[in-house]
Write a structure and sequence with these properties.
Blueprint lengths: L1 H24 L1 E3 L6 E3 L27 H11 L12 H4 L46 H10 L8 H9 L4 H9 L6 H13 L7 H6 L7 H10 L20 E2 L12 H5 L8 E2 L21 H11 L25 H11 L5 H4 L9
Antiparallel strand pairs: 1-2, 3-4
Helix pairs in contact: 2-6, 2-7, 4-7, 9-12, 11-12
């Protein structure tokens, strides 16, 4: 009996020791030396989904939290992520112009221009491919790239990690958001991705129209009807609530092909010259247009699709081939072009462009 009694106590002591060790793993130093304080659980939040929007893609390894989103917002607007502490994500993604840049090519920290137009950022929680050429498959993966790109922030992740770990505020903010004592690149991109998933635009005149409100004027209504007709033929690529089918297409912009786009990522000849179809939401504010920013106005864009698509471009999308029209083009009238521009301006969402939840918190 005595031997069994001692064995039972031995088992209990082992269990207590294991439990104590496990508890220690969930605690972090805080306050005075030697004092441990449990890390509070971050506060879960859900996206505010506009009426008519489908379910969004859930990142199971990076759930949204209040602390994570706010940290991501702070990082998005902080030039600490760049080599010279002078350029932030927001430098090339300005909220008032739908988180894009009004320059044809953004200028990096070394004063060198990039090679493609800065993409607008909105409704990213529904996307599966990022960058014009689709080389990233998640927002987390996308966020790694600009930091080390020599034409953008031009630094290294070890340098960024060191600056953040030495910062008077960031270590505690990362601790509260992710429960970590040491900041590394993985939690940095997770925070930025969380913030970017909240950039939702769904309160335009177009949305009110979809909800049954009679808000279009005559020219806007004419433009919408043309947009969704075979005559205007915009809807094949720009459709649904996101005004994009999120596919990759060669729209006949290049001949010969100078930027291979998706083809450079996949290595396939059939993908050369293909780029992701961009959203038309807030397109009124996102000039210049196309992957290379060659068009300064929406009227120039409409002129291109009406009259100037290069049907000899390799891999040109079948939608671009209007072989049944004179000259192989849409041949729109001036009135029709004006109507299309008027309709596209109904996709503007002033609330999104001025939402204080997305602004610089510094």
């Amino acid at each position: 009996m005595e031997r069994a009694y001692l064995s039972s106590w031995f088992v209990i002591l082992i269990v207590l020791a294991v439990s104590f060790t496990a508890c220690q793993k969930d605690e972090h130093f805080a306050g005075e030396p030697g004092v441990r304080e449990a890390v509070p659980e971050p506060t879960p939040i859900s996206l505010e989904i506009p009426v008519g929007f489908p379910s969004h893609i859930v990142a199971s390894n990076n759930p949204l939290t209040l602390e994570g989103v706010e940290l991501g917002r702070k990082l998005f607007h902080d030039p600490i992520l760049s080599k010279n502490n002078q350029q932030s994500c927001a430098s090339c993604h300005d909220q008032k112009i739908a988180f894009t840049d009004d320059a044809r090519f953004s200028i990096g920290v070394e004063g060198k221009p990039g090679t493609r137009n800065s993409m607008a950022l909105m409704n990213l929680a529904w996307r599966r491919n990022f960058f014009w050429d689709g080389r990233a498959n998640s927002l987390e993966e996308q966020a790694f790239d600009p930091i080390t790109d020599p034409l953008e922030m031009n630094t290294t992740w070890p340098e960024v990690e060191q600056k953040l770990n030495d910062h008077p505020e960031y270590p505690e903010l990362f601790r509260l958001a992710f429960g970590v004592d040491e900041i590394d690149s993985n939690v940095v991109v997770k925070a930025i991705a969380q913030f970017e998933r909240t950039l939702i635009s769904g309160n335009s005149k177009f949305d009110k129209h979809l909800q049954g409100q009679n808000v279009f004027n005559d020219l806007e209504r004419e433009g919408f009807e043309l947009f969704v007709s075979e005559e205007g033929d915009c809807f094949h690529c720009h459709n649904g609530v996101f005004m994009s089918d999120n596919t990759f297409r060669n729209n006949g912009l290049q001949f010969p092909i100078e930027d291979e786009g998706l083809g450079a990522v996949t290595g396939r000849d059939r993908d050369k010259g293909k780029f992701i179809v961009p959203t038309l939401r807030n397109v009124e504010f996102t000039a210049p247009y196309m992957h290379d920013g060659r068009f300064e106005t929406l009227r120039e864009v409409v002129d291109f699709y009406s009259d100037n698509v290069n049907q000899n471009s390799p891999n040109v999308d079948p939608v671009m081939l209007k072989v049944n029209r004179p000259g192989g083009s849409l041949g729109l009238t001036d009135r029709q072009k004006d109507a299309l521009v008027a309709f596209m301006k109904t996709l503007s969402d002033e609330e999104f462009l001025n939402d204080p939840r997305f602004s610089n918190p510094h």
